[in-house]
Amino acid sequence: MDLSNLWLLVVPPVAGAVIGYFTNDLAITMLFRPYKPIYIGKRRLPLTPGLIPSNQERLAQKIADTIMGSLLTPAELQRLAKRLLALERVQGAILWLLTLALEQVRLDKEQKTAKILAAILRDFLGESLPRILKVLARREDFLEPQLNQIFDQILLEFEINEQQARTLSNWILQVALPPDVLRQALIDFLTERNIQVIDEGFREKSTGTYWVIANLFGLRNSLTRLRAYCLDEKEAANARLEELIISLGTRERLREWLQNLTLQNLPVLTVRQLRKTTADAVRSYIQERGSDLLLEFSRSVDWEKVAVLIINRLRESETMNTSLELISQELALVLERYLEEDLEKLVAQVIPILSIDQVIVERVRATSPEQLEISIKGIVKNELQAIVNIGGILGFVIGLLQTIMLLLR
Predict the structure, then answer these.
(1) d(Cα 60, Cα 226) in Å, to the nearest integer?
(2) Ramachandran angles phi, psi of 201, nearest 5°
């Protein structure tokens, strides 16, 4: 076999391999390039730009439809949401938010939080609570258990100790009922009519020796002279009353009486009636004047100062810091129970709001052909190279078959 015959046998496989290899490579390259249309004069060359750049908008819509139809279906999004909203993750997120909010409150130098809290407290105690009280006050059993509990645990067991009784008795005799007040009360009581009624009653109802004294002497003259003495001799009358209070041991008697003053010494029926009367009186007052009382109280309070005190206390409270984890856990459990019931509806509402398909379309549209080529080749680089290599192999095989056919001739 001479050299020319050998050349005819070698060229077909080599040429087939080269043509097949570079043809596939050119075809793949033409999928992306040229990036822009090429014009000769006013006529655009065919196959420019490449297949993908010229159909980029349609490709974007196809990609979005494929992803939303096969990958990100409502059921799949619901499963993803369940994994993302697992109890531990939700609890951690809520704890982070609460910690961040508490830290923000601590760093609030303009007292914005205090102003907001003051407005909430003002609205609650000045507007909302009076309205709620008006509604609740219509009930027949309004505050009945609470008032009975206060009566049984506080008023019924209340007793005055010796020091309190001594102080209270001194206040009564020195401030509330001093000799001058007693003298004036005696003057006001001993009017002409009262003196006449006392004298006539003493005459009619006395018997025996007292009847003789009542009808011979009577009380009218003595009571009239006593009233005149209190009017004319103020200082002397006050002194006599002071001496009388001391000589009778009024202060000690009053102290002992106050010490022994307790509702437990009263009969059971009396205590029950007193409890009912007290509860009815308090309930009636709250029903009639409770709303006005709360309104007046709300107007008289400086809520901003109260809010600042509350926030400062929260800033320094260790209980607040240690309770954040428990609060976040409880909130996470509440959210989990809500999601178990309404997650499907929530996902159905979220999908149109997110417009994931439009996001995909816009993202693909906004990607330049160069970047799109780099991205696609980065994903299927090995597969594209395999296509090129297969083209070369097929070209070589076809050339080899041609060589075999030449040999058979």
Answers:
(1) 115
(2) -65, -40
Query: How many Cα atoms occupy the beta-carbon half-sphere of 242 within 13 Å?
Result: 10
Evaluate whether 85 touches 340 at the Cβ level (below 8 Å).
Answer: no
* CA pair distance 163, 33, nearest whole angstrom: 105
Positive or negative: CA dihedral 72, 73, 74, 75: negative
Q: Which residues contact 295 (CB under 8 A, 6 or more apart)?
A: 126, 130
DSSP-derived letter for residue 175 is: I
- What is the DSSP-derived secondary structure letter of residue 178? -
Is 23:409 a contact under the CB 8 Å cutoff?
no
Buried b (16+ CB within 10 A) or exposed e, 21-31: beebbeebeee
Q: Tell me: pLDDT of 377 over 70.
A: yes
Residue 40: both structure tokens together: 């000769």
- Write the burial class of residue 307 (CB in 10 Å: 0-12 exposed, 13-18 middle, 19+ buried): buried
C-alpha 101/C-alpha 165 separation (Å) is 52
Percent helix, strand, coil in the chain, to 5, is 85, 0, 15
Coil, strand or helix: which one is 362? helix
Cα–Cα distance, 300 to 272 (Å, whole number): 37
The pair of structure tokens assigned to 295 is: 């309104």
The residue count of the chain comes to 409
Spatial separation of the C-alpha atoms in residues 233 and 317, rounded to whole Å: 67
Amino acid in the structure at residue 309: L
Q: What is the pLDDT of residues 272-330, one digit of tens each?
A: 888 888 888 887 887 788 778 778 878 888 878 888 787 777 766 777 667 777 778 88
Say if residues 223 and 193 touch (Cβ distance below 8 Å).
no
Q: Can you count the helices (H) and strands (E) in the chain? A: 21, 2
Structure tokens, 275 = 């409890």
Q: Which helix (H) or strand (E) holds 43?
A: strand 43-44
Question: How far is residue 348 from each of residues 11, 77, 83, 353, measured CA to CA in Å?
Answer: 65, 9, 17, 9
3-state SS of 141-165 is CCCHHHHHHHHHHHHCCCCCCHHHH
DSSP 257: H
In the chain, what's the furthest Cα-to-Cα distance? 183
The Cα 274–Cα 127 span in angstroms is 34
**99 C-beta neighbours (distance < 10 Å), count:** 14
pTM to 2 decimals? 0.42
Instruction: Note the pLDDT of residue 3.
Output: 58
